[in-house]
Amino acid sequence: MRIGIRSRTWKVFNKEASLKRESTNKLIDKSFPAVPHSEHKHVNVTGNKSPYDGDIIYWSTRNSELYNGETSKALKRQNHTCGYCGLRFTSEERVHLHHKDGNHSNCKTKNLLAVHESCHDYIHMGKRDKP
């Protein structure tokens, strides 16, 4: 029988003279919080695919599943291409969600654009105050 880390830790903590059963349980719950099932997502690679096989379309589509919410919707809407430069997303660079009007409270579909991290930096480069 395999004993989990939570059980082993409980045994160690419970041996402490100053800890009682309730305080041990509270300490364990704080140390090992419950993780929702959605956090355990894993997307299997199809067939013999490899990040080095040159199939940028497959990998950009697959990587968009790692993003959730508005970023994923923007990626699908833009056919997995950058809204600024038009190039496909690869695993080398993170995807940023750009708010066209600069208002981060405005999450309407028309205001959101999925862009490369470098493109996002370039977009905001001209908007910085110069010293």
From TrEMBL:
GO terms for molecular function: endonuclease activity. Residues 80-109 form the C2H2-type domain. The keyword ATP-binding does not apply. PROSITE patterns: ZINC_FINGER_C2H2_1, ZINC_FINGER_C2H2_2. CDD domains: HNHc. InterPro entries: HNH_nuc, Znf_C2H2_type. It comes from the Bacteria. Coiled coil: none annotated. Keywords: Endonuclease, Hydrolase, Nuclease. This is HNH endonuclease. It comes from Brasilonema bromeliae SPC951.
